[in-house]
Design brief:
- By secondary structure, the protein is an all-beta fold.
- The protein is built from no helices and 14 strands.
- The protein has 2 domains: 76 residues, no CATH class; 82 residues, Macroglobulin (MG2) domain (Immunoglobulin-like, Sandwich).
- A 4-stranded antiparallel beta sheet has the order 4-5-6-7, with no helix packed on it.
- A hairpin with a 4-residue loop joins strand 10 and strand 11.
């Protein structure tokens, strides 16, 4: 069965009701009977909410990530790296660097995001990101070829989240 067939069925998420009945259920006959639809999901999942988006099913798993259907309707893949559940600013790599480094960050919700670089005195050097971003993983390359060696700071602000990290440019 192809993923496009998802729209032909009814899906429901259920929690353990004491009878060992939990997970995702699928009906092929308008709800008269239901079959388990848990292939590819971890066995300890207990919180199922299903969203059908243009023939693709999404379900959050234990507040750690999102699974979605792939290729066939009985296979689910783990997409927790694609849908972060918290905001995060990672250490740049490499550090120390010359002349460029990569800064990675995660956005958990749709937010206006700014990523700025400052010198050791707090003077803004460059704005790397200044736009609304969807939830996801991002990376940006900081090219410091025009800057002198020294300590610099980069700061990510997204909604109420704010984090700053140090990086070292060595020429």
């Amino acid at each position: 069965m192809l993923a496009t067939d998802i729209n032909e069925f009814i899906y429901a998420g259920s929690l353990d009701n004491g009878w060992g009945c939990f997970g995702i259920r699928r009906s092929t006959d308008n709800g008269n009977s239901w079959q388990s639809f848990n292939s590819g999901l971890p066995p300890d999942c207990t919180n199922y909410i299903i969203c059908n988006n243009n023939g693709i099913l999404f379900t959050p798993i234990n507040f750690e990530g999102v699974y979605r259907t792939i290729g066939s309707t009985t296979d689910l893949e783990d997409n927790k790296n694609n849908f972060p559940h918290k905001f995060e600013l990672s250490p740049n790599f490499p550090n120390p660097f010359n002349p460029s480094t990569i800064i990675e960050y995660k956005i958990a919700d749709l937010e206006f995001v700014t990523l700025k670089v400052y010198d050791v005195l707090g003077k803004e050097i460059v704005v790397l990101v200044n736009e609304e971003k969807q939830a996801g993983n991002y990376e940006v390359t900081f090219d410091a070829s025009e800057l002198p060696s020294g300590v610099y700071f980069y700061s990510l602000q997204a909604g109420d989240f704010l984090d700053t990290k140090k990086m070292i440019l060595i020429k």
